Amino acid sequence: MAPPAKATTKKPDGKAQAVKVAKAVKSGTSTLIKKSKKIRTSVTFHRPKTLKKERNPKYPRISAPPRNKLDHYQILKYPLTTESAMKKIEDNNTLVFIVDIRADKKKIKGAVKKMYDIQAKKVNTLIRPDGTKKAYVRLTPDYDALDVANKIVWVFHSVDRFVEEERQEAGILKDLSFVAKKDLGRIGFDF
User: Fold this and answer.
1) A GO CC term (predicted)?
2) What phi, psi does 60 have (nearest 5°)?
3) What's the maximum distance between 2 C-alpha atoms anywhere in the chain?
4) What is the mean pLDDT of the segment spanning 78-103?
5) Which CATH number is 72-151's, of 3.40.50.1820, 3.90.180.10, 3.30.70.330, 3.20.20.480?
6) In a 3-state reduction of DSSP, which class is residue 135?
7) How many of the other CB atoms lie within 10 Å of CB of 96?
8) For 35-118, where are the E strands, in sequence order?
9) Residue 182 phi, psi (nearest 5)
10) How far from the centroid of its chain's Cα atoms is residue 102's Cα?
């Protein structure tokens, strides 16, 4: 067997290589020009800022805008007309309301201003044993609580009179049968 053939590799001539490099430097090829490095001022690498488009939804994700469940009509339920409340009106220039349990003092103050156009000096609240919230609305000295109470029809005389008239009309029907009275009782008449 013959000895294996040696791979012949030609070494490039040093002079020829130098001429080639000199020519490349003169013409300015990109392989030999060094890229200047960007100066980094932070050790943290951040991804580049990309284009962020505004949202352009095909349909609304919420079908209707949310309704304010605690508006001024909901906050102030009704005024209290007990004897102690009347005493507060006369002596302390204070109106007494039953309010929504979720209403805070600022919301109560705003609701009184919006509904009755009166300025409240301060509001005190308490939660009654039956679970309702009572608010004592102290008015500023330029408002008189008694006048305001009359203005907002505090004492419901007209409503009471209407109910009394309805009961008198129902009194005509006192000789009705028990079933008829029961039906009227469901509507709201008392016998």
Assistant:
1) ribonucleoprotein complex
2) -70, 140
3) 141
4) 93
5) 3.30.70.330
6) strand
7) 23
8) 76-79, 94-99
9) -65, -40
10) 13
pLDDT at 16: 85
- Tokens of residue 29, six digits: 């090829």
User: Which residue type, as a one-letter code, is found at position 60?
Assistant: P
- How would you label 71-95 residue by residue, b for 16+ Cβ within 10 Å and e otherwise? ebeebbbebbeeeebbebbeeebbb
Which residue from 170, 162, 68 is spatially nearest to 114, judged by alpha carbons? 68
Q: Where are the domains of the chain?
A: 72-151, 157-187
Cα–Cα distances (Å) from 125 to 63, 104, 133, 145, in that order, read: 37, 8, 7, 18
What does the angle CA 190 – CA 167 – CA 79 come to, to the nearest 5 degrees? Answer: 80
Please give the structure tokens belonging to residue 48: 């580049």
Residue % of the chain over a pLDDT of 70: 70
| Span 53-68, pLDDT tens digits | 999 999 999 988 888 8
Per DSSP, 2 falls in state: P
| Residue-wise pLDDT tens digits, 163-190 | 566 666 666 444 445 555 555 555 555 5
Q: What's the predicted TM-score (pTM) here?
A: 0.52
